[in-house]
Amino acid sequence: MSDLLVDLGQNPYIKQAIKQLGLPLPMPEKLRRPRGAWEERPLDGRTVVVFACGQLTLPLAATLAQAGAFAKVVGTSLQAAPFVAPGEAFGRRIVQIEADAEPPADLRADALVFDASSLSMPRELRGLYDAFHPYIGALNRGGRVLVIGRPASASRTAAEAATSAALDGFVRSLAKEVGRKGATAHTVFVEPGAGERLPPLVRFLLSDRSSFLTGQPWTVDARVESTLDVKFVRPLEGKTALVTGAARGIGASIAQALAAEGAKVVCLDRPGDEAPLAQVAQAIGGAAIALDITERDASVKLIDYLDTKCGPLDILIHNAGITRDKTLGRMSASYWDQALAVNLDAVVDLTEALLAHGLSNNARIVCLSSVSGLAGNVGQSNYSASKAGVVGYVKALSQTIAQRGMTINAIAPGFIETRLTAAMPAVTREVARRLSALGQGGLPKDIAELVTFLSSPGASGLTGQCQRACGGMFIGA
Ligand code: NAI
Questions:
Q1: Would you give the DSSP letter of residue 90?
Q2: For ligand 1, atom 10, which residue shows the shortest CA distance?
Q3: 292 C-beta closer than 6 A to ligand 1
């Protein structure tokens, strides 16, 4: 990644000017990203400090030990007790620290996890301060903060709802504070009865696979039946996936990531892009189909192809997208139509057709939205409308397809290093990279990691959501 500000920041005058503009100076370190495919112990040898005062201690204790982490439990011996057996089973002896004791002077933590699921009154939020205040300084570079609570929608009283909502505000601020050291923070709201769906998400958020995601609330619910045989290695073995817009950029990266976890991937892109498309497909042992998804009979052609070549899809990734930027007064009707046709109409039309014929039960659908769709952007009224439409579609459709064991989610990337962002003016590009908690742009691989997680059988607790993958971008956050 070219880092203009890193170079300019060496000059003391320019450094001063950058500070006055309010642009964060670059981090000394790049984000820690995973090298290979999913592994059994993504947290092997990592230290996780757990403030274990809630109702979700059991799934948390098992998850950490199974993922290879060493838990240091802050609380009474009774609160630490659920961690002992799983720790021993995986050779991860736990350490208990009394809540009112000073943190050990040599403590370095790879993650801080707070189980807030028992908090019901605003004054109990003081527990967040008491836990994090002494320990936040011990968080390593590239560390993780996780606060787990109950969603406001499950609250019995307005005061309890206020307490839940406060967790989100706390974590969003913390994400901005720890972002400078490449660390991230998330809130996970677990609906009552959905605790068993929590472990895969905890593994993902504490691992290097989520390094560009931060400041996000996630909700785990029990609407979609969970699969019992959740595999952490090659989770997509035996699955067939379709990725639209797979010839390059984020789509190519998604196709590679899904294939690396065992999926057979059908790569789709426009006629005219056959050469790069075939290259991507060949490299991953996948198949290629050249099809313009805005063609009137695109869904008929696609279903014919699936019927003859590979059968129904288990994973459908709507990644193809275009921008046609102009301020509204200067925008031609064709610019409007093109952006809406690719980014929204085709997503809806293809999904509806495939739901009727071409998607397996328990399928996973992921749609690429954009931060522009959530926050709006000058010159992008068409693009933002289409990408906001995707979020609405995902939310509504999740209700109707849940009974078939299917999930559908959206991802709103922020600044990702692709040809789309390479085409931006240099200064705008640098500002866009820097104005985020992590102070840098993401890579296509970061989006691919989230898509892969949401496509996995273990992600059954997540549906109807839109996750920003933006490094904690300040715009519209
Ligand atoms: P890209 O332009 O590099 O790739 C998009 C692909 O979609 C291209 O290969 C293109 O040929 C294909 N495509 C476009 N129209 C098509 C059609 N009618 N039929 C079939 N294929 C078609 O874009 P990039 O950056 O990889 O973006 C991927 C997705 O992520 C898009 O939906 C985009 O809106 C979204 N996104 C990207 C961001 C970024 O920073 N790069 C930020 C926010 C969202």
A1: T
A2: 245
A3: yes
Contact 113, 46 (CB under 8 A): no
- Residue 16 has a pLDDT of 59
pLDDT of residue 5: 47
Structural domains of the chain, ranges and CATH numbers in brackets = 31-220 (3.40.50.720), 240-469 (3.40.50.720)
CA distances from 339 to 217, 306, 397 (A): 29, 26, 22
H-only helix segments in 137-197: 158-178
Indicate which residues carry an active-site annotation: 383
The answer to whether 292 and 247 are in contact (CB under 8 A) is: no
The CA-atom distances, in angstroms, between 449 and each of 211, 302, 364 are: 10, 26, 15
- CB of 270 shorter than 6 A to ligand 1: yes
Q: How much is the pLDDT for 3?
A: 44
pTM here is 0.95
12-20: long-range pairs with CB below 8 Å, 24+: none
Q: Which residue pairs from 332-340 have beta carbons closer than 8 angstroms and sit at least 24 positions apart in sequence?
A: 335/382, 336/382, 339/382, 339/383, 339/385, 339/386, 340/382, 340/385, 340/386, 340/389
Instruction: Say what the pLDDT of residue 205 is.
Output: 98
Contact 83, 61 (CB under 8 A): yes
d(CA 384, CA 374): 7
User: Which stretches within 54-197 are classed as H helix?
Assistant: 57-66, 77-89, 126-135, 158-178
Q: From ligand 1's centre to the CA of 276, what distance in Å?
A: 14
- 348 token code pair: 């809806």
Cα 15 to Cα 4: distance, rounded to the nearest angstrom: 12
